[in-house]
Amino acid sequence: MADSKDRKVRWKGRDASETALSSPMSGIYNAIKEWTPPSGIFADSSVLLLTNWEQAQLLNRACFGRPYPPATAPPPSSAPAYPPPIPGFGDPEAKDGMQLFQLGLEEAFFLSHEMKCIQIYYQTSEGERVFLSDDELWRRMLKKRLHFPQFYKAYSHLRSKRWVVTSGIQFGADFMAYRHHPSLVHSDYAVLVMSGEEKASRVSTWTDVHAMGRLCGSVAKTLLLMYVKRKDAAVDSTFPSCLEEFDVETVEVNRWLPEKNREADDKSQENSDLKDTE
């Protein structure tokens, strides 16, 4: 990935950059790590986390998960507020209340394994709650998502560099990568995770590359291919320790525009030729 300092930031609103600087993502992460771990229930292909008011605000600021049940009200017509209010839970008077957050598989495992700030349980048919260790949680997630190790490796790679990562399904991608909260900044990357183990590559033809490139270009995103490959084909992926046996390579796919890459002398000569023909 290119150095983010070399990329133009597309802020949302006049004061968005100042707001982001006053609330850096690293500071939010540190605050999350210091809280008393809330409990979550592994349910189908997500985790439902029960949080108090302060925990809900921090998850909201770091863009982990979403309030459950999701809001049905239409978004406001004005510029997005930061942090966006949690429906029915944004009032400070609700500090004594509790809020459910729905976490995706990668989000839940990152908070449990990497940040060690939540505890996840499984509820049996008899209603008993059984604590899931990282190994047990990993194996359950493996059953829910094909190539989960590769997807989680890509997700944690971006999060460890303090990118905000969300679902990319609306753009035909796996993830979207933002420099800060989506209410403050437009995303930089549409991410495709390339596990290297598919029978056919997801962008195996020029048509595939061109289609994704055109889609990303139309919404001012850069297509980022993340190749997550095993160092050893015989590695046992049934334990999270296998993550150390994966390498990550990133490739940015950009359209080449000749008119933006000409030498100054060539361009001057071209302008001169045009004048001569008039």
Description:
- It is a single chain.
- The longest helix is centred in the last third of the chain and has 14 residues, at 264-277.
- The protein starts with 15 loop residues before the first helix and ends with a helix.
- It is built from eight helices and eleven strands.
- Helix 2 (25-33) runs antiparallel to helix 3 (53-62), helix 4 (105-114) runs antiparallel to helix 5 (134-144) and helix 4 (105-114) packs across helix 6.
- A hairpin with a 7-residue loop joins strand 7 (164-167) and strand 8.
- The strands form two sheets. The chain has a six-stranded mixed beta sheet with strand order 3-4-2-1-5-6. A five-stranded mixed beta sheet has the order 7-8-9-10-11.
- It folds into two domains: 13-145, MutS, DNA mismatch repair protein, domain I; 146-278, Trna Endonuclease, Chain: A, domain 1.
- The relative contact order is 0.12.
- The protein is 31% helix and 22% strand.
- It is of the alpha+beta class.
Number of helices, where a helix is a run of at least 4 consecutive DSSP H or I residues:
8
Low-confidence stretches: none
Query: At the fourth CATH level, what is the homologous superfamily of the largest domain?
Result: tRNA intron endonuclease, N-terminal domain
Percent range of helical residues: 25-40%
Shape: globular
Q: Structural class of the secondary structure composition? A: alpha+beta
- Seen as an oligomer or otherwise, the chain set is single chain
Number of domains: 2
The CATH topology of the largest domain comes to: MutS, DNA mismatch repair protein, domain I
Total strands = 11
Radius of gyration equals 22 Å
H/E series: HHEEHEEHEEHHEEEHEEH
CATH class of the largest domain: Alpha Beta
Termini separation (Å)?
45 Å
Average residue-wise pLDDT? 84
Instruction: Please give the CATH architecture of the largest domain.
Output: 3-Layer(aba) Sandwich
